[in-house]
Structure formats: structure tokens, C-alpha cells
């Protein structure tokens, strides 16, 4: 695999950097040649207020609002592979998740662009640059840094896990915590998957990467649109949907109770038509514990295993990779920006090659 | 000018496209080679809630929130010019303003990248991907499409201006209106200029492009940070600051009253040390009118003229270009994405060359 050999020196170079890599002083990577890049909105709706519009004394009357669309930024490399990759972020995040890592290395956006995939980064409806929502919300500044540190498995605040794949420079944690951005309207998996389906209508066939909360909307997108040819889900944590009559019981944990939802068998079986892989990282017990941050992932992994079994029981091709089982240790919830993110990308590349998607 | 000749065929090719240019079917532009790209947060603050943090029963106690930073995405071309360009969007917008135009052509992000400038696109604090605010807000879905159509001078709703530099395909207006995104916290020119100053601390010397409402935070950034070596302001509409004792009287208009603010003379004179150019477009009268959309710009242009005079009276190098005066007609409020945006970019390139900033 030429591309794997190409990528390894990048990681080694970057790891030698002291602290944060600044743009201007970043190591000189091999240049990337881009055929086209740009951005657009897709999906969404128009909310119309009745009445006549008075140009010179405007009120809500007769005016409309465009909202609930997603925003996508794309880059098409020279000599691109046939299938683009669409990357959908998780809760409290934007497309930022896939860009530069908190310690200044290349994220999956640029890593997969270098591997010749057209890459589409999405800000989901009611988040980031797709902020216009048709439903109101209130944003309270909520102090969550320590909860995120635990729940995203950097460690147990204030201590990092011994083997964590995260640079402990305080400036790196600062960058990580500033990737958090709030909902600008109520979270709605249907609104998100409708816009994602419109995206796949626009771009045609592609591979969908999801992170965390995006797992649920990701499954729904593939059900709604046959242009989704594969799903690579990084630590999907909620939104697990099962065929009616096969929904597992709720799973209590120290972080709350995880529930699954029923959908029609015919819809579920649309997921059986495409290859799916789920990756989970390290540093949580598969046995019950009182540690909230860890126990949260115990039940999500357990639910994911049941979900993969259900997909395969219905004739599907789903796989769950718990990275410690294949000797990859120390990963946080943010597999795509961890210190070993090139190794994770290599695992994904192997999967895509095996499924003839590259 | 080699670069101008290079850019012209791009415009002609793109204008031949029927309707929206989709990514996959976009005209094959000359490829762009990028040395590095990525994103980061800079500036902002940390809000700390007192008390001990309980990992297994988390509340606000003992937790912190990172907020009020900006988000920047940068691209460094091969053989870059010395000074990067930083682009700061206006009200209701994000860095999206500078990307692909609503009709699918290249925006200033890629145009100036092709002209060998490193380009930094900013989402200002409390907007877009820099959504985490230390101050709460409520977001109401406000129907503003028709007001924006008038105020951004596409025409007088529902009619376009006869010579407007905007593609009348309804899909283009849809894209334009979906670039709107709300504040996720109160607008605060000081919070924005503090984060912008932190950005210029990080990247060093650079050229600042501002659009519309960003004019005000732009002047403040240059006052706070000597790394701002020039300002190119596209239709600055508010935030005009004058030396104490020289503040002009408020200017009433059909769209409300425009006021200016005083600052210390010593601060104002920091603006006299750098070249500044302000561009304004077409389709508004310089005489009072009852047309709200137009009259709004009459007073903003008038205030801008007084402001340029004040800068120059204090020894500065400021210039105002009302584009119709140099024969460039039909521009909306979004000069950088209008149909003639390559022509506008050429005017800017000429300015930068004249000031030895390229």
C-alpha cells in the first residue's frame, strides 16, 4: 500500500514538534494539489410568515427564513478516487472535528485528501455555519470541560489515562475544548438525516464517516438514500435503531440509561445492503463500574455489539472493532484526532480496500 | 500583471455554467497546490465555576467553559507571498461569506490563494464554529429574507436591480440566504477584536479584509495589534470610531439612525500608520430617499467619507472607492461574491501592489 508508506513519515515528523504546531512554522509536509474546493448549503426548509411585505417598514409579515440545511466544505484532489468521503461530526462539535488535531497535526480531512479521496466536511443543521434553525433555542454557557475530559476519555479529571493518545501540553487541551460549539436549535436526527440525504442526492455515491452522536443520523441517512455505499462509524454512542420486535432492553449505567429505538424491518434491512464498520477506543471497562466516564462507554459498546449482530442477522455486513482487541491502545473518544490517528486512518483504508470502495 | 490575466478565463468559464455549479460537475479549474492547511481556535477566555468537581455526579461545580475565541481555517499555497490575508465576515454571516459564491464560482478564499497569498478565514467569536459564548443568548428563527434582499441591495423585493451583479436563478438566491447564521452570544466588538488581535499575535504580520459589520472590529484590531499592516474594508456599515471631539452628529435615514463613537486620539492615530481602503457598491442614492434598503447605505457611505477624511487629517493613508465612480456597476453589499468578484479582486490586488504589500 503506497499510501500507507507515504503517510508514516508525516506522523513521525509531526510528533517531534514541541507543543502546538503553528501554521507558519508547521513542518513542511508534501504539498497537496487540489482540483477544486468550495462550500455550499443543501437540504433544509423555508419558513414563510403570511402577509404582505412592506419594504420600507419591514416586519415578520410576508418574510421567509431559510433554515435547517447543512453546510458542506469540499475538496477534490487531483486524480481522485471514485467515491468521496463525507464526514459528519458528533454532539457539541462541528466539521472542526475532522480538521487539524488539537496538537496541530493533520486530521482526517487532509489525511484522506492525501489518500486521493474527495472529502466533504459537514456542519449539521443547527450547528456551526449551518446555524439557521426554524425552531428557537436558548444557549446557556454551560461549564462542561471536566465532564468532557472524563466522558471523551482523556482520563479522569484532572489526570490523564496513562497510555492516552492525547498530547498533555495544556495548550493542546485548550484547543480541544475550544472545538466545542453549541446547538443553535433543537437536535433532531430526522432534520439532520434529511439534509444528509439531500447531500447524497447532490454528490451521488459516497462513503459516510460518522462520529459519536452522528451515528444515529448516519444510519438514517443510509436508510433514506441508496447513494450511501458504506458507513465508517467512530464510537457511535446513541441513536441505535433495531427492527420492530428486536429492540434490546434499556441499559442502565453510571452515566444514565441507554435506550434503543424500533424501526420498520424493511427500513432496517436497507442497512444490510452496505458494508459498515464501527470503531471504539480504549480505557473503559466492559464490566460495570462506578466511574461515570468509563461506564458510559461500557453500555454504548454493549449496545453497538447487539446492533452489529442484528444487522448481520438480517443479512448485513457489519463489523465492530474494539481497538484494544487488535492491539491499538490508548484511544480517546476522538479516534480521528488522537496521536495515532494515522494508524486509525490506516485501519479505515484497509477496510475500504477490502470492501473495494477505494 | 500575470495574475490578472490568469484570473480572467476562470470568470468567463464559470459564467457559462447554467445555474448552480455542483462540486462534481464543476469546470476543471487549474489545480491549486497547497503547502499546508488546517484550523485552530485563538483568543477567548475560560469561565470557571467555583467548587469541587465530582467526576461521578457532575454538576456545574468545579467545571470550566472555554469560550469567546475565534475559529480560523488557513491554507498556505506553494511559494507564498510574505503577508497572509485574514478575512473577517459581517453580521449574520460566517467565513462562508468568502468561500464559493452563491452561484458556485470561486470566492475570495480561493481567488487570493491562487494569487499566492496565505489565506485565513475567520468565524468570529460567538458565530459559526466558534459558537461557545461565555454569555447566554436566545436564538429566535427570525424571517429576514426579504429584508436582506433589500438591505444587501440585490434589489427591491421581489425585483432585482436591473444591473445587479447577482445571478437571478432562484437556486442561487436560496444558497445566498442559507449563508445566514445567527449569533450564539451577544455581539461584542471588543470580544471580537481581542480574539482577532490574538490571531495576529499568532500569525504575525498580515493584511485584514473585513466585510460589513466587521469594519468596526477591524479598526479595533488594527489599533490593538501592530501586526495588521493594511485593511481592505468591503462596505463597512457600522462601528465607525472617531477621535474624541471629532465625532460627527448622528445621521438619520429611512433605515434608522447611524451613530459614530469616540476613541482616544492616540488610539485613532494608530490607524493612520497603515494603508486602508474602503469599497462600496452600486444601487443606492447619495441623496435622501424613502427606500429603506438604499437609504441605509446613503448614510453609511456618508459616514465612511467623514471617517476617511478624519484618518487622513491625522496623517493617515485611507481611501474610499465608490465603485460606480470608477465605472464598476451593479455591485451588491457582497462585493466579494458578486458576478464580477474577480474584477473586484483585481482592484484589491492593484491596491496591495501599489502599497507594496504583495
TrEMBL record, chains A, B:
<feature type="signal peptide">
    <location>
        <begin position="1"/>
        <end position="23"/>
    </location>
</feature>
<dbReference type="InterPro" id="IPR029058">
    <property type="entry name" value="AB_hydrolase_fold"/>
</dbReference>
<dbReference type="Pfam" id="PF12697">
    <property type="entry name" value="Abhydrolase_6"/>
</dbReference>
<dbReference type="InterPro" id="IPR050228">
    <property type="entry name" value="Carboxylesterase_BioH"/>
</dbReference>
<keyword id="KW-0732">Signal</keyword>
<protein>
    <recommendedName>
        <fullName>AB hydrolase-1 domain-containing protein</fullName>
    </recommendedName>
</protein>
<dbReference type="InterPro" id="IPR000073">
    <property type="entry name" value="AB_hydrolase_1"/>
</dbReference>
<feature type="domain" description="AB hydrolase-1">
    <location>
        <begin position="85"/>
        <end position="305"/>
    </location>
</feature>
Amino acid at each position: 500500500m503506497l499510501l500507507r508508506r507515504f503517510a508514516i513519515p508525516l506522523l513521525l515528523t509531526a510528533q517531534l514538534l514541541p507543543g502546538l504546531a503553528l501554521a507558519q512554522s508547521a513542518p513542511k509536509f508534501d504539498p497537496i494539489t487540489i482540483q477544486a474546493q468550495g462550500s455550499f448549503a443543501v437540504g433544509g426548509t423555508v419558513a414563510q410568515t403570511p402577509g404582505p411585505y412592506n419594504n420600507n417598514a419591514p416586519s415578520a409579515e410576508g418574510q421567509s427564513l431559510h433554515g435547517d440545511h447543512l453546510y458542506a466544505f469540499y475538496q477534490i484532489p487531483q486524480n481522485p478516487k471514485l467515491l468521496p468521503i463525507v464526514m459528519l461530526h458528533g454532539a457539541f462539535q462541528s466539521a472542526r472535528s475532522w480538521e487539524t488535531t488539537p496538537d496541530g497535526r493533520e486530521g482526517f480531512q487532509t489525511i484522506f485528501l492525501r489518500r486521493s479521496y474527495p472529502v466533504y466536511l459537514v456542519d449539521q443543521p443547527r450547528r456551526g455555519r449551518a446555524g439557521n434553525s426554524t425552531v428557537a433555542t436558548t444557549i446557556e454557557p454551560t461549564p462542561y470541560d471536566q465532564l468532557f475530559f472524563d466522558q471523551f476519555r482523556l482520563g479522569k479529571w484532572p489526570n490523564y489515562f496513562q497510555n492516552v493518545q492525547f498530547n498533555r501540553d495544556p495548550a493542546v487541551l485548550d484547543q480541544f475544548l475550544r472545538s466545542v460549539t453549541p446547538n443553535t436549535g433543537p437536535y433532531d436526527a430526522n432534520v439532520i438525516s434529511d439534509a444528509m440525504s439531500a447531500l447524497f442526492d447532490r454528490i451521488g455515491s459516497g462513503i459516510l464517516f460518522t462520529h459519536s452522536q452522528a451515528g444515529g443520523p448516519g444510519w438514517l441517512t443510509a436508510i433514506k438514500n441508496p447513494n450511501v455505499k458504506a458507513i465508517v462509524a467512530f464510537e457511535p454512542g446513541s441513536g441505535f435503531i433495531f427492527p420492530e420486535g428486536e429492540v434490546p432492553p434499556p441499559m442502565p449505567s453510571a452515566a444514565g440509561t441507554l435506550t434503543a429505538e424500533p424501526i420498520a424491518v424493511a427500513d432496517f434491512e436497507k442497512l444490510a445492503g452496505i458494508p459498515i464498520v464501527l470503531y471504539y477506543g480504549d480505557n473503559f471497562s466492559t464490566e460495570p463500574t462506578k466511574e461515570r466516564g468509563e461506564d458510559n462507554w461500557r453500555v454504548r459498546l454493549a449496545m453497538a455489539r447487539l446492533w452489529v449482530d442484528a444487522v448481520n442477522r438480517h443479512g448485513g455486513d457489519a463489523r465492530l472493532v474494539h481497538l484494544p482487541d487488535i492491539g491499538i491502545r490508548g484511544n480517546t473518544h476522538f479516534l480521528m484526532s488522537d496521536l495515532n490517528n494515522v494508524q486509525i486512518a490506516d485501519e479505515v483504508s484497509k477496510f475500504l480496500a477490502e470492501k473495494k470502495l477505494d
